[in-house]
Hints:
Oligomer: single chain
Shape: rod-shaped
Structural class: alpha+beta
Order of helices and strands: HEEHEEEE
Amino acid sequence: MSQAICANCGAVLLSGTSFCRQCGQPAIVSPSGSEQVTALFGQAQDTTTTKRLDPRPTTPGYEVNSQSLAAASASLTRSKRSWPKLITIGIALSLLIVVSVGVLWSLRAGSRTASNVQINRSWIYPGSRTVVDIGDSGGAVLQLETKDALDKVQAWYESNIKPTKTLRVNSNSIILKREKVTVTLVAEDNLTSIVIKQAS
C-alpha cells in the first residue's frame, strides 16, 4: 500500500487525515476518512456565529430600558431595607396588643367582691399623657405616652419601681417586672408608650 503525498509540500500524509500536517493543504479524502477538512486561515468562513440577543418586551407597549431596570432595582433595594423596620414595629405592636388583651382579660376575670386595684400615682411618668386608666378588683392597667426617648423613660422607671427583672425584647421594646407590677415600654414614631399592669 503506497502512502499519499501532499501535492503542495511533498510531505507524507497520515492515513485517515484530510489535510497535510506539514503545510495544512487539504488532501483528497477517501469515503472512509474520519476527519473533516480543516478550514484554512484567510479563507472565507461561515459567519453563522452566536449573536447577542437584544431583549424584547413580552408585554405589548412595554419597553425595557436601563432606566426602568435601575428604578426597579432601587425600589427592590429600598423595600429590602424597610423589612427589618416593619418587622420590629409589627413585633412591638403585637406585644402591646397581647399585653393589653391579657390585662383586660385578667381585669374582667377577677373577683368582683374585692376592692378596686389602682396603679400607684407616683409611677406616672412626668409630663406623659394618659391614654388608658382602668382598675377593678382583678387588677389595674395604666397606659401613658411621652415624647421622651426610650432610654430616658427606662432609666426613670428603673430608679422609681426598682424592677427585679428587665427584659429587652428588641431595640424598641423593654419589659420591667417587680412582684405584681409589669411595665412595658415601646418606642414608635417618636413616642414612647408606657403600659403599667398591676395584678391584684
